[in-house]
Every structure is written in structure tokens, then in C-alpha cells.
């Protein structure tokens, strides 16, 4: 028994199963039995409850209809007479069909046995078709709202072809629909790796060892019973690339990157925020290996000793999910980013949760030079001394450097609009813009200096202490 016969029997046993009709239509399509395919897809569309399946059926139905029209137009009347008509062709031409399904025209126009109780509305459909092609009669009232589908009947040499058309309101058209094949789906966000991150060599090595290597050397790490996944907390001044580094880490791991925003979690109703947080973790576990990224994690995991009782339940849920009590967190990497690590609840920073704290320091000289080159790439500018600019921008974050470049470009554009003389961005423009911008990291570093001095008994901020020991005389 071939697949078509088997599916036909399944369709007879389960006439309201949309999936069976869909796959039967696919087999008819592969066998180039266009009319049978149209009939099967139409049946599937009638019984389909899932919107995704309905969209897919509509998409493939339009393709099969187009193939039918092309095939009918290309075939000569002599070719049609040379071969005996198939059951589908017999139905198309109005000849009786032993299956009891009526002609194809009846099936699509609602004039088969099932539609007898509703009366004959062929004249109304003809009027609507006239309207679609600019021939509407003045006294017509438009399409009948009770019909489920409409048919566009056209004449080709030797045959009457009934082309399926999903019912739409006059003046509207279905411009897209259905699921894209997995091979054709493209992400709007490009994959970012460490190659796209300027500088930060020490940070990359730390992440490579603590995060990426366990993903690709599971045998070695399992031999030492070193689990894959867990939590990493990136902290540092604003604008230094914590979010960008998290996305690059996901790109290096070739894992699904899931961003969790504070607006996705917090809700004014009691208990809803906790449920939203649990659902976010469930979604990430279902797509492992995956990377969850919590930006401004201190807003969700705020220190309970400083917060009200309303946020305690959310922090407790966060701790519960990080521990993986009800489900494991293997192959699930959780990255948090914050500008204020001292406001994150201490229980979140203990081993087993965010047990790895990584300091994202302001970019060094090499990184700043690279950032200047990237920011001015493909802009209308003379050759700039990026090394000189990098030396003059100590403590500048990546966002500060981008601000300098934007200000320089704005100055040039303003001059061009005033004088009408076009010119490129010059080194002088960059230096003038640089004089207007102050590094935004200094306030953060001064605050961190106090925490290092008075609240670093456990060595949590040793990375900041080393950085301040090297650069602190300028702060």
C-alpha cells in the first residue's frame, strides 16, 4: 500500500483531522495531482484550528493553485483528449464521481450535497467575482458573509479550472502567512563573537576558561565532575560593554541567547512577577544549551536587607531557580549585568548561583584605539591619529568614545549647512569634540573605591582593587 492510499484511508476514518488532509494534499502535490491536492488542502483548511497550520495551508494552497493554472494553460486540448480523465478531472468537468464528493466546482462553491440546505448562491458569487475584476453591478450587495471560501472560475482551452481563493473582505489581500521553513528563517540580530569586541583580553580569557571551555569540553570537565552552566555576574562602570560581552559569550558558545528585561518580569499584582520569572527560566531550560542574560540584575535581585517585603518573594524565586531545585541548570548559563554589585542580594553572589563575579573595566589604550577606528569606519573623514586619541581618553568608556565621534560629526555637518562647503571630518574636529566630553566612569570608580576600602573583607571586589591600584592616582 503506497502512502497516498494509506492517507486516503486515514482521511476516511478521521475526516475532521486537518493534519491528515494536509499531508494527503502534500502527497497529491508531489504526484502532480493538483486538483486532488486542492481538494485535500481545502478540507484541511476547513477543519484546522491552529492558526499556524491554517497559515501554512493557505500558503501551500496558493502555490498548488498557481501550478494548476500553469499546467492547464500549457497543455493543449489534444493532450487532454489523448489520455482518459482522472477522477479529479471528471469532477472538474462536471461528470459524476463515485466517491460521492460532488464536482470540484460544487465543493469550492458550496453547491455540493452539504450545501443543499443553504440554497444556491451562485449568482451572488458571480456578482462578487465581477466586483473583484471591476465589473460589479450597481445593485449588488457584495459577498455573502456566511460562505467560508470563494472560488475564482476561469476558462482555459478545453477545461474549466476552479482556482481556490481564501475568502477576504473586498479591498483586502493576504500578503503573507504560514510558517517559514527552518532553513529559511533568519535572525534579525547578527551573531556576535569575541572578534567583534575591542580589547578586554584579560576578560576574554576569564570568560573563555570559566564559561566557554566547559561548553566545548564536556568530557574533560565531566571527568573532573565540573558542571557546565551556572551563573556569572558582570559588573563595572556603565557603557563599558557588559551587555555586548554577554552577547559575544553566547555567540562563542553557539547557544541560544535569551534576554530577560525588567519589564518582562515585574508586575503590580502580587505573585505575577514570581510567575513571570519562573516562566522565563522554564523557557530557557527548554532551549538548552542557552544563555540567559539579566541586564540590571540588581533591579530583580535587590538586597533584601535594603528592600521592602514586596520584593522578597521575587528574590526568593530567583534564588530557587538559580539553585535548580525542581529542575537542573546544566547547559544553562545565566549571565547578570549590573553597575552596582553591592546592591545585589548577597545570597545571589554565593557559590552555586552568581558564584563568578567578573569586573568589566573601562577599555585600555589598545581597546580605545580600536573603538575609535570602528566608530569612524566608513564615515567621510580624513585619516585620523587614533593612537593619539586613545592616549587622550583615559577612563573613557566605549559609550563615551562613541559620543565623541558623534559630536565631531555633528560639528562638521553644522558647518557644512552654514557654509554650503562640503568637507570631511578632520583631526581638529575630533580634538574639539573631545574637549567637550568628560569620562562617565569616574563617578562610578570613586564610589567603588569606597566599597573596596570599607566593604571588601571577603575579597569580593579584589578586581576593582587591582585596577584602582594601577590607575587610582588619577581618580
TrEMBL record:
Please state what the protein is called.
Answer: Cell division protein
Q: Which UniProt keywords apply?
A: ATP-binding, Cell cycle, Cell division, Coiled coil, Nucleotide-binding, TPR repeat
Keyword Cell division in annotation: yes
Please give the residue ranges the record annotates as the region Disordered: 74-158
Q: Which GO terms describe its molecular function?
A: ATP binding; ATP hydrolysis activity
Q: Which organism is it from?
A: Paenibacillus elgii
Which one GO biological process term can you cite for this protein? cell division
Pfam families in UniProt: AAA (PF00004), AAA_lid_3 (PF17862)
Amino acid at each position: 500500500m503506497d502512502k497516498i492510499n494509506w492517507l486516503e484511508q486515514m482521511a476516511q476514518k478521521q475526516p475532521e483531522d486537518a493534519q491528515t488532509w494536509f499531508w494527503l494534499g502534500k502527497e497529491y502535490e508531489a504526484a502532480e495531482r493538483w486538483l486532488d491536492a486542492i481538494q485535500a488542502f481545502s478540507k484541511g483548511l476547513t477543519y484546522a484550528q491552529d492558526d499556524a497550520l491554517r497559515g501554512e495551508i493557505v500558503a501551500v494552497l496558493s502555490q498548488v493553485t498557481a501550478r494548476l493554472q500553469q499546467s492547464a494553460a500549457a497543455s493543449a486540448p489534444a493532450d487532454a483528449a489523448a489520455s482518459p480523465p482522472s477522477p479529479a478531472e471528471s469532477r472538474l468537468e462536471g461528470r459524476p464521481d463515485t466517491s460521492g464528493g460532488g464536482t470540484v466546482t460544487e465543493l469550492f462553491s458550496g453547491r455540493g450535497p452539504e450545501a443543499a440546505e443553504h440554497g444556491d448562491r451562485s449568482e451572488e458569487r458571480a456578482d462578487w467575482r465581477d466586483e473583484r475584476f471591476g465589473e460589479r453591478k450597481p445593485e449588488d450587495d457584495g459577498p455573502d458573509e456566511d460562505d467560508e471560501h470563494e472560488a475564482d472560475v476561469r476558462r482555459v482551452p478545453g477545461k474549466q479550472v476552479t482556482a481556490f481563493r481564501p475568502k477576504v473582505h473586498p479591498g483586502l489581500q493576504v500578503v503573507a502567512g504560514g510558517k517559514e521553513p527552518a532553513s529559511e528563517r533568519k535572525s534579525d540580530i547578527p551573531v556576535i563573537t569575541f572578534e567583534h569586541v575591542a580589547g578586554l583580553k584579560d576578560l576574554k580569557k576569564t570568560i573563555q576558561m570559566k564559561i566557554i571551555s566547559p561548553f566545548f569540553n564536556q568530557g574533560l570537565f565531566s571527568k573532573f565532575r565540573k558542571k557546565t552552566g551556572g551563573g556569572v555576574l558582570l559588573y563595572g562602570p556603565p557603557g563599558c560593554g557588559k551587555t555586548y560581552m554577554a552577547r559575544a559569550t553566547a555567540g562563542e558558545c553557539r547557544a541560544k541567547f535569551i534576554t530577560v528585561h525588567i519589564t518582562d518580569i515585574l508586575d503590580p499584582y502580587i505573585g505575577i512577577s514570581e510567575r513571570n520569572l519562573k516562566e522565563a527560566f522554564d523557557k530557557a531550560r527548554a532551549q538548552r544549551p542557552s544563555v540567559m542574560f539579566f541586564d540590571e540584575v540588581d533591579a530583580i535581585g535587590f538586597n533584601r536587607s535594603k528592600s521592602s517585603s514586596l520584593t522578597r518573594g521575587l528574590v526568593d524565586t530567583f534564588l530557587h531557580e538559580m539553585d535548580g531545585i525542581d529542575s537542573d541548570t546544566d547547559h544553562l548559563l545565566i549571565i547578570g549585568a549590573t553597575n552596582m554589585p553591592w546592591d545585589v542580594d548577597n545570597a545571589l553572589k554565593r557559590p552555586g548561583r552568581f558564584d563568578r563575579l567578573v569586573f568589566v573595566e573601562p577599555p585600555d589604550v589598545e581597546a580605545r584605539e580600536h573603538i575609535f577606528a570602528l566608530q569612524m569606519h566608513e564615515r567621510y573623514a580624513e585619516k585620523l591619529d587614533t593612537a593619539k586619541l586613545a592616549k587622550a581618553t583615559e577612563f573613557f568608556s566605549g559609550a563615551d568614545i562613541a559620543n565623541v565621534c558623534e559630536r565631531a560629526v555633528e560639528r562638521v555637518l553644522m558647518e557644512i549647512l552654514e557654509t554650503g562647503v562640503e568637507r570631511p571630518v578632520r583631526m581638529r574636529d575630533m580634538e574639539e569634540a573631545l574637549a567637550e566630553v568628560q569620562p562617565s566612569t569616574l563617578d562610578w570608580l570613586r564610589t567603588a573605591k569606597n566599597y573596596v576600602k570599607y566593604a571588601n573583607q571577603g575579597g569580593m571586589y579584589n578586581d576593582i582593587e587591582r585596577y584602582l591600584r594601577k590607575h587610582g592616582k588619577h581618580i
